[in-house]
């Protein structure tokens, strides 16, 4: 079986989202993927080629003003060159985001990623977890403590740096990375059998 290639295309304004990107990377690598971290505001021609050869692309951005960051939007618009040629057709996609508020309209950022992936003809990989921290016996340390289904969502206090990213949110991002890599392996087997 070939090793799936997973790329994490992300922007991080203050370092919190970079912590999550690293967690997604660790989870995907733990599941046996070749993983590449790509900062979209510093992307090179070689990194565009890496995205083109990836089996899965995980999008990541902080949620600013109810959507992905401006830097991520610039990247998304630049992908239109890939859209015209259907370069990312049938790749897997997933997403993660962070904001200071528990909600912070993070769902809109994840939906923006889903729409971007759909326009490229990609297949969305959801978080695959039930919500945590939603009963009297639950804990803020549960996986998916914020209760998102579309992707991994994190909350980081606005008066703390990257060291303040919640450990449960890091573990949730690692889970997403593992899930994407495992799904990429399944897709590879299916393609080989077809």
UniProtKB/TrEMBL annotation:
Alphabetized InterPro entries for the sequence: Flavodoxin/NO_synth, Flavoprotein-like_sf, FMN_Rdtase-like_dom
Xref: Gene3D superfamilies: 3.40.50.360
SUPFAM superfamilies (alphabetical): Flavoproteins
Residue ranges of every copy of the Flavodoxin-like domain listed in the record: 6-154
Protein name: Flavodoxin family protein
Organism listed in the record: Streptomyces lavenduligriseus
